[in-house]
């Protein structure tokens, strides 16, 4: 069950975080200073699941992590109450396939059988969030993968560094429910091979610290419509940007969130700059 929860959470974060931007120079690690901060805090863009061959944990990230007093993820992986909420979110509270047209049902059945070895009856017992998680997992493109969130969590525990979350699991689940209609689910599950190819490109871009390209790839209109972007990306970014200043005043903080949340006019880098902070790339 523990592994299933970890898989579910990682996948949800992956889907929820898609964006687009033009930030130069390129880096996945950014330093936050100014506006009364006595010590810098850091913003690190993660990719929630990455093939082991593409996994890198750079020395600059370790240094920034060690300088920080507290680690923040999108959600708090160290809170038992949040883990329990994740468990609740795996199963469906009602049928999400009943109102699909016959054509959409046939399309869904074909995709489930072809890519997931699953029947529509089995899928109907799972929440839409869990189905999106299956898409993410299937699209990683490898059997051996790593998670930056899980690795950072292990590192924090080994060094007795406290952890927190920028939002509650319930809020994240609500964002997914509001964003994805049953028709959206059918469309995306049917495009599993295309999403797998896209994620392979995104992993290469991430390994090269090409933040802009990661955002552009994950902003593909086949998987990110305006409503999904508004609720799952822009709205959450604003909520986090409003919360981060108080957290930085309390502790020197290391914020680790999906890389696509960093970039763009409504990304965390620009939102924090608008609040008066200096946000600069850490290049080495």
UniProtKB/TrEMBL annotation:
Output this protein's name. TraB family protein
Which organism's genome codes for this protein? Siphonobacter aquaeclarae
């Amino acid at each position: 069950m523990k592994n299933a929860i970890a898989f579910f959470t990682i996948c949800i974060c992956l889907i929820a975080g898609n964006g687009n931007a033009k930030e130069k120079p390129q880096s996945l690690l950014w330093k936050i200073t100014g506006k009364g901060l006595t010590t810098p805090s850091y913003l690190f863009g993660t990719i929630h699941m990455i093939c082991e061959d593409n996994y890198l944990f750079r020395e600059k990230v370790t240094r920034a992590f060690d300088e920080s007093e507290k680690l923040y993820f999108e959600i708090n992986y160290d809170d038992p109450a949040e883990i329990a909420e994740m468990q609740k979110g795996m199963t469906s509270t009602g049928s999400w396939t009943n109102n699909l047209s016959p054509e959409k049902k046939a399309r869904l059945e074909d995709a489930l059988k072809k890519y997931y070895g699953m029947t529509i009856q089995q899928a109907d017992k799972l929440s839409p969030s869990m189905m999106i998680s299956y898409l993410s997992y299937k699209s990683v493109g490898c059997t051996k993968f790593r998670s930056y969130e899980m690795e950072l969590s292990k590192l924090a525990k080994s060094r007795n560094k406290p952890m927190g979350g920028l939002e509650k699991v319930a809020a994240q689940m609500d964002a997914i429910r509001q964003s994805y209609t049953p028709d959206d689910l059918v469309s995306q599950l049917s495009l599993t091979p295309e999403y797998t190819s896209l994620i392979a490109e995104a992993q290469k871009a991430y390994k090269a610290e090409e933040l802009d390209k990661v955002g552009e790839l994950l902003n593909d209109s086949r998987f990110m419509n305006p409503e999904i972007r508004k609720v799952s990306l822009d709205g959450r970014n604003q909520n986090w940007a409003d919360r981060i200043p108080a957290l930085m005043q309390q502790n020197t903080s290391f914020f680790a969130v999906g890389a696509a949340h960093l970039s763009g006019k409504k990304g965390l880098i620009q939102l924090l700059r608008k609040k008066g902070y200096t946000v600069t790339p850490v290049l080495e």
